[in-house]
Amino acid sequence: MQCCQWCAIFRSPLWTIAAPLFGKPLKKPLVPGLRGRFYCPTNRLIKISGEAVPAVPADVTPAYLAIDWGTTNRRIYVIANDGTMLDTIRDDRGVLAMAAGEYPSEIAAIRDRLGDLPIIAAGMVGSTRGWREAAYVPAPADLATLAGAATRIEEQRVTIVPGVSLLTDTRADVMRGEEVQVLGAIVAGLAPADALFAQPGTHNKWVHTQGGRIADFATTMTGELFALVKGHGILAGMLDGPVADGPAFRDGLSRGSGACDLTAALFGVRASVLLGRIAAEDAAAYASGLLIGNDIGAVPDMEGQTVYLLSGGLLADLYTIGIEQRGGRVVALDSHAGFLAGLHAIREHLS
User: Fold this and answer.
1) Residue 275 sits in which domain range?
2) Is residue 256 part of a domain?
3) Cβ within 8 Å of residue 167, ≥6 positions away
């Protein structure tokens, strides 16, 4: 039986019954809505949330838990003293799913499942909407700066990493969680100390680093804006088709790049469908291209630049196409690897 077939079985509740038949009882019970590590009966791989990673020696001792605690989702890692990831789970228990007084019991539940270990967390858990505010540190900032301003909740043995802020005469911006990925990618040797990073998502970040410090950054609402126009207003119901690379997406990229009339271009999606310029099934791809093209087009001097892309999946592919269309070069990075390297380095600064 192929490994992918085993994975389909593992995701089924029946596996809790069938596991003993294969002589491979689960390391931990599978909990609905919570995906974690489980052993493949082929003994070739360990599967983590559907991702194949090398098996970890059984004699490695866990040292702490690292949590990427975002607005809607959360990912928890079990980390060894040398930074090796031993286990991970991912769920939808982001800060929006948490009541104000629920965090201590949630921390206890995490430790019951993964071990009674110290915790270091980053992301929206340290915001005013999270558990305990970890005040922003102003840019320029590096990992030592973040460690020095971390918020400690001593009674819970939890450390929360602060975000980074930017304030000039003309701009204000903030980030939480992304700074750990960026600086972690540098400390792990995945990117140089002076670099341009992109972190596509609901809110994309363009981050400039100098000397291993976050020097400047800008947040764009590209993903959120697409969701808003898709679900509300005049374009609602017109953007239900697939978003993928193709002539419509690339046409949108070209129209959106450098456009000073983005709102007019978005209304043009409706007009283009009504007048037959764009097929109805291509409207979503075209609108996505408009927004991504406009996002990338706002970055000055893209021609010849290398962009270190902390993302994955379709969104990373679409941004890669857009960046390369403007003459840039993309180096794709594993955002999880960056996050873990960053938190591990912060932990060493805290020691």
Assistant:
1) 218-331
2) yes
3) 138
